Amino acid sequence: MTKPPTRIQTRNRAAILSAGLDVFSQFGFRGATLDQIADAAGLSKPNLLYYFPSKESIHTALLERLLDTWLDPLKALDGTGDPVQEIIAYAQRKLTLSRDYPRESRLWANEILQGAPRIEDTLRTDLKTLVDEKAAIIKAWANDGKIADVDPHHLIFSIWAFTQHYADFDVQVRAVLGEKAPYDGASVFLDTLYAKLLQP
Fold first, then answer.
1. Would you tell me which CATH number, out of the four given (1.10.10.60, 3.30.1360.70, 3.50.50.60, 3.40.50.10860), belongs to the domain 1-53?
2. Fewer beta carbons within 10 Å, N or C terminal of the chain?
C-alpha cells in the first residue's frame, strides 16, 4: 500500500505546480526551464526532481488539472433552460474563468499556439465531443425559432475569443483601459452583445 504524502510533500508539490503555472504561462513550454520553476517554488532543482522527473511532467500535470476546469462552463449549458439566458450564462462563466484563472488561460493558449503537442488527443476527443453535443442543442434552438439562426460552433468560438482575450491579452487590455475595471465593462457588453445577436 502506498503511503499518503506527508504535509511537506503536499506543500512542496503544490508549490512546484504553482511555480510551474507562473513560469509556463509567462514563457511557454519551450521558454521555461526547470531552474526557473525551482527558483519560483523556493526549492533546489534536485528537490524539484524528486517530485517531478522532468519539465514535461510538470506541464502535463498542470494541463490535466486544468482540463476539467476549462470544460465545466460548457458542460453546464442546459438544453432545457431558456436558450438566450443559457448561452449568455455560459459566456459569463467563461469570462469569470478568465478573471479568476488568468495564468491557466495563458498556459492553455501557449499550448495551443505550439500546436497542442501534449493535449491534441484530448482536443480531438473530450473537447470535440462536448462542443458537438452543445452545438447540437444550440442548433435545435435555432431550428425551433427560439434564437437567431447562428452557426453554433462559430458562436462557441466567438465566446472563447471574447472571454479569453481578457486573460491572454491582459497587459494590452489594461494599457488601453488604464484604471478601469476591465471585467465589469466586459460583463455588461457581453450581455448586450449576445442578447441582440441571439434575438430570433
1. 1.10.10.60
2. N
